[in-house]
Amino acid sequence: MTKKILLSVLALGASASAFGQAASTSEPAVKFTLDTTVATEYIFRGQQYGDLGFYPSIKAEYGNFYASAWAALVDNLTLGDFEVDYAAGYTMPLNDTFSVDVGGTYYAYTGTVGNTDTIEPYVGVKANVSGLGLSLYYFYDLQIDDSTVETKATYSVPLDAIKTSLDFSATLGFATGDLTENVIIADHYFYYGAGLSLPFKVSEIATFTAGISYTDVSEDVINDSPETVFSAGLAVRF
Q1: Which domain holds residue 197?
Q2: CB–CB of 211/199 below 8 Å?
Q3: Nearest to residue 218, comparing CAs of 237, 199, 191, 183?
Q4: Which of 144, 168, 203, 206 is the most exposed place for a label (fewest CB within 10 A)?
Q5: Can you list the positions of beta strands (E) in 77-226?
Q6: How many domains are contained in the chain?
Q7: Residues whose CB is less than 8 angstroms from the CB of residue 87 and which lie 6 or more positions away in sequence, other chains included
């Protein structure tokens, strides 16, 4: 089954590339990003869902619309054999600083007992203030009646000498509900973390990124210690 997922992602990427090249020699109407990332742990909203994993994804953008498919091929995945998330949304700019993002994600799992698939609509506000990226999102899980509020800040420092940048991020979130999709049930908890990444431009369309992140939660019953994750990925845009 894992081989089928990998072949499907590769086939989707090849089809998207052919479509993008055939559409126009200038700026394409539909933009695609194909990403392949490896990370030492699978952390979702502060909780560890698995160990070493491979995360292929593809995203398509048409104007302000976007759609994506993302897979988690992870050792010891908590929620089944593997996970595939499908998302779609629309980003509406309000002015040069603020924009509103509305969409939804369908979470699909295999190898679980019963139906654990779920749909999670979301709405968010994003801002860019003098290079500082800020966002505030609300997520609501229709299947298990969970709500999550998450805020994130990002900032990039150019490193012209080595033709890259130092990208910082910080996240703070609050999850409430029974969280019955998890092995451990926690009604309310905060999660928080910070990340650092270095993107290196391999070509005009490809970027290799190495990163490290730190996350923790307010409930020891979920994670009794902070998690440090190392990652490396290659993104191709066309």
Answers
A1: 2-237
A2: no
A3: 191
A4: 203
A5: 82-93, 98-110, 118-129, 132-141, 146-159, 164-176, 188-201, 206-217
A6: 1
A7: 66, 67, 68, 69, 70, 103, 104, 105, 106
pLDDT at 24: 42
Round to whole Å and give the CA distance between 124 and 141. 15
The yes-or-no verdict on residue 126 having pLDDT over 50 is: yes
What does the alpha-carbon distance between residue 88 and residue 64 come to, in Å, rounded to a whole number?
11
Q: What CATH number has the domain bearing residue 58?
A: 2.40.160.40
Count of residues making up the chain: 238
How many other CB atoms are found less than 10 A from the CB of residue 142?
11
Is 75's pLDDT higher than 70?
Answer: yes
Which residues make beta-bridge pairs with 55? 37
Quick one: DSSP state of residue 238?
A: -
Q: Would you state the pLDDT for residue 225? A: 85
pLDDT in tens, 222-237: 777 899 999 999 999 9
C-alpha 158/C-alpha 162 separation (Å) is: 9
- The amino acid at 146: D
